[in-house]
């Protein structure tokens, strides 16, 4: 499915060739600082397109080859801000990763180099037709120096689906994960060790063809930048207020809401500003005549209801082309389901829990508020992990939602605590992927 719309479709992937390529000695000591003059020499050359021996026609173009990585160390490391001064997404580390692609030669040499501006032709497709997509993931550093990623395979799979949706090239997600590990390990001094801090990683893929025609981009650039970030809840949990908008839609069936495309986000800014003017922090995105709930701001949505039999039902709308398949959404669902099945108890969650993915409409919330059965509403996403909702403005009035004494309901709190423990390595879990082992 991932490669259905991809320009690589007719070209068999070269993943098996590149993955089995022997690593050179220089590529196996990637994190070692290099002098500027050493930068290029000695690196393995990126794989070349494979041609038909008879016709000379290109039959395979190279996938990303992590073993051909070149590292250009910064000669002027930046001064790091004290943790307390970090603002989300405003500070960037010393290095970035770039990998060029073209339809003729495939994925080129991955380079880690000093963080800095890109030089692009003004006709680049990214500037005109929004050939851009991104991911959001985090790295965590333990006291012993161990650096971990959280479920990077999920981000890579989603990034490939996004790429395929707008005819940008797909790639070997494992190879990109390897390269991201090298980048975060090289810049690991930038990951604050204090509790709640992490490194936000932003892989991005843009179309760079220099031509104004609308069509698949013949050139692309994948880059990854990293930003040290503080705890979302530095001063206690702050529930958010949502405006359930009937004026704007975020996504529609057959559209692109289920993909992390740049094109989905700029149009959400004016609705958010309008919501802010009315005293709400985010939009609750609805769809259709019956005002089905889809997402909150740029987070997935969960709601919980008390049932007559004493159980609590945790609901999230099912995935489809309107809902972004969040990594935290999936993780929250799995943790809650394991709790419901009695496989792994999550402290704080209702003992009798039912987890469902089903359509949810505003009338359900209105009725639950009237009956006193509204238990909790929260959003999930990599930045905040969970975010409680205490109020939803809808058709001229506010629906009040319980959030508990701490400002975070018991389900959101239980999920948050478990996820943080997994992400930071406090609990061993297959979701937590080690980028580099500590020295303790
Ligand atoms: C990124 C994003 C999410 C959350 O995804 P995570 O992988 O959990 O961070 C949810 N909704 C939208 C619209 C998003 O862009």
Automatic annotation (TrEMBL):
InterPro entries: Aminotrans_IV, Aminotrans_IV_CS, Aminotransferase-like, B_amino_transII, BCAT-like_C, BCAT-like_N, BCAT_family. Transmembrane segments: none annotated. Its EC number is 2.6.1.42. It catalyses: L-valine + 2-oxoglutarate = 3-methyl-2-oxobutanoate + L-glutamate; L-leucine + 2-oxoglutarate = 4-methyl-2-oxopentanoate + L-glutamate; L-isoleucine + 2-oxoglutarate = (S)-3-methyl-2-oxopentanoate + L-glutamate. Pfam families: Aminotran_4. GO terms for cellular component: mitochondrion. GO terms for biological process: L-leucine biosynthetic process; L-valine biosynthetic process. Gene3D superfamilies: 3.30.470.10, D-amino Acid Aminotransferase, subunit A, domain 2. The keyword Transferase applies. It comes from the Eukaryota. One of its GO terms (molecular function) is branched-chain-amino-acid transaminase activity. Belongs to the class-IV pyridoxal-phosphate-dependent aminotransferase family. This is Branched-chain-amino-acid aminotransferase. It comes from Kwoniella shandongensis.
């Amino acid at each position: 499915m991932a490669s259905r719309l991809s320009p690589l479709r007719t070209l068999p992937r070269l993943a098996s060739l590149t993955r089995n390529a022997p690593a050179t000695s220089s590529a196996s000591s990637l994190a070692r600082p290099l002098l500027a003059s050493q930068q290029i020499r000695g690196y393995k050359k990126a794989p070349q397109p494979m041609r038909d021996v008879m016709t000379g026609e290109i039959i395979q173009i190279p996938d990303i080859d992590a073993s051909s990585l070149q590292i250009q160390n910064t000669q002027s490391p930046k001064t790091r801000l004290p943790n307390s001064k970090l603002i989300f997404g405003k500070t960037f580390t010393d290095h970035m990763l770039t990998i060029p692609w073209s339809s003729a030669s495939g994925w080129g040499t991955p380079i880690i180099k000093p963080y800095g501006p890109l030089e692009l032709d003004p006709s680049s497709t990214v500037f005109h037709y929004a050939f851009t997509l991104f991911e959001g993931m985090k790295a965590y550093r333990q006291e012993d120096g161990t650096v971990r990623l959280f479920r990077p395979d999920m981000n890579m799979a989603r990034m490939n689906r996004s790429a395929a949706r707008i005819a940008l090239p797909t790639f070997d997600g494992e190879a990109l994960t390897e390269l991201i590990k090298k980048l975060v390990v090289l810049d690991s001094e930038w990951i604050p060790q204090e509790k709640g801090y992490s490194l936000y990683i932003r892989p991005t893929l843009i179309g760079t063809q220099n031509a104004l025609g609308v069509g698949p981009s013949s050139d692309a650039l994948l880059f990854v930048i990293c930003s040290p970030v503080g705890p979302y809840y530095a001063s206690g949990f702050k529930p958010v207020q949502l405006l359930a908008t009937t004026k704007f839609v975020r996504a529609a069936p057959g559209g692109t809401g289920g993909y992390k495309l740049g094109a989905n986000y700029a149009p959400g800014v004016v609705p958010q500003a309008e919501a802010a003017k009315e005293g709400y922090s985010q939009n609750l995105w609805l769809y259709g005549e019956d005002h089905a709930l889809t997402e909150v701001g740029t987070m997935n949505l969960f709601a919980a209801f008390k049932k007559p039999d004493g159980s609590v039902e945790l609901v999230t709308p099912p995935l489809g082309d309107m809902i972004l398949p969040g990594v935290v959404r999936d993780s929250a669902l799995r943790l809650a389901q394991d709790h419901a099945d009695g496989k792994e108890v999550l402290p704080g969650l209702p003992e009798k829990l039912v987890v469902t993915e089903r359509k949810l409409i505003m009338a359900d919330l209105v009725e639950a508020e009237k009956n006193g059965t509204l238990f909790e509403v929260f959003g999930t996403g990599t930045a905040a992990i969970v975010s409680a909702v205490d109020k939803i403005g809808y058709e001229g009035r506010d629906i009040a939602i319980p959030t508990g004494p701490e400002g975070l309901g018991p389900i959101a709190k239980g999920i948050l605590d478990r996820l943080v423990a997994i992400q930071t390595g406090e609990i061993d879990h297959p979701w937590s992927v080690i980028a580099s082992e500590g020295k303790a």
